[in-house]
TrEMBL record:
Function: Nucleoside triphosphate pyrophosphatase that hydrolyzes dTTP and UTP. May have a dual role in cell division arrest and in preventing the incorporation of modified nucleotides into cellular nucleic acids.
GO MF annotation terms: nucleoside triphosphate diphosphatase activity
Principal EC category: hydrolase
Gene Ontology CC annotations of this record: cytoplasm
Top-level division of the source organism's lineage: Bacteria
InterPro entries: ITPase-like_fam, Maf-like
Keywords of this entry: Cytoplasm, Hydrolase, Nucleotide metabolism
Catalytic activity: UTP + H2O = UMP + diphosphate + H(+); dTTP + H2O = dTMP + diphosphate + H(+)
Cofactor list: a divalent metal cation
Pfam families reported for this sequence: Maf
UniProt source species: Vallitalea longa
Family of this protein: Belongs to the Maf family. YhdE subfamily.
Protein name, UniProt field: dTTP/UTP pyrophosphatase
């Protein structure tokens, strides 16, 4: 069975690779900004599904398409990838010294049967208090710009994370336990496809 990851995210690619899965990458070209922000779980499930659907539409045969979307939620506000360094600083000031939630939506589409699995995962993250200098220096590393909330738990951002409650891989951008559950629900045995 062919597996397609509908994502340009290097983190999602790396995580799927760690699972020893053989897969292709096809980047979805949906306009993420055109979707209205609603409840975080509704929003990330919708985007994950739209990403997977836009790639699945061009496929045929025995194939699964995986789409995912990750956002940071602080006091009910959805923070996506910052558009510039100013916005990255603004996000990091909000998260500094506080707890926030990371939501990832996951969608798997079975192209042949058109069966779908759509779900989401939530992880609590506690970030230490950051001073202005730490925020400026961190932004200078270039790490924040392509990451929801303006930090990467798997990179330099790790030095600011005091603790998390929940799935680490969800914060990094792909909830692996949910992925396994989703494959199972669609009747796919992970251990069969990595053989
Ligand atoms: C919170 C956090 C997010 N991220 C990343 C994961 C995602 O790549 C990104 C959130 O943006 P997304 O819009 O979910 O994904 P993307 O634009 O990178 O890729 P695509 O839409 O093609 O799938 O933030 C980290 O790498 N580490 C973190 O700690």
């Amino acid at each position: 069975m062919r597996i397609i990851l509908a994502s340009k995210s290097p983190r999602r690619k790396e995580l799927l690779k760690r699972l020893d899965m053989d897969f292709d990458i096809k980047v979805s070209h949906i306009d993420e900004k055109s979707f209205e922000k609603s409840l975080p779980w509704v929003y990330v499930e919708k985007l994950a599904y739209e990403k997977a659907k836009s790639v699945a539409e061009a496929e045929a045969g025995n194939c699964l398409v995986i789409g995912c979307d990750t956002v940071v939620v602080y006091e009910n506000e959805i923070l996506e990838k910052p558009s510039n360094t100013l916005q990255a600083a603004e996000y990091l000031k909000k998260l500094s010294g506080n707890k926030h939630l990371v939501y990832s939506g996951l969608a798997i589409i079975d192209v042949d049967s058109n069966k779908k699995y759509i779900s989401h995962e939530i992880t609590e993250v506690y970030m230490k208090e950051l001073n202005e200098e730490e925020i400026t220096n961190y932004i200078k590393t270039g790490e924040p710009l392509d990451k929801a909330g303006g930090y990467g738990i798997q990179g330099i951002g790790s030095i600011f994370i005091e603790k998390i409650n929940g799935d680490y891989y969800n914060v990094m951008g792909l909830p692996l336990n949910k992925l396994y559950n989703g494959l199972k629900k669609l009747g796919v045995n992970y251990f069969e496809i990595v053989k």
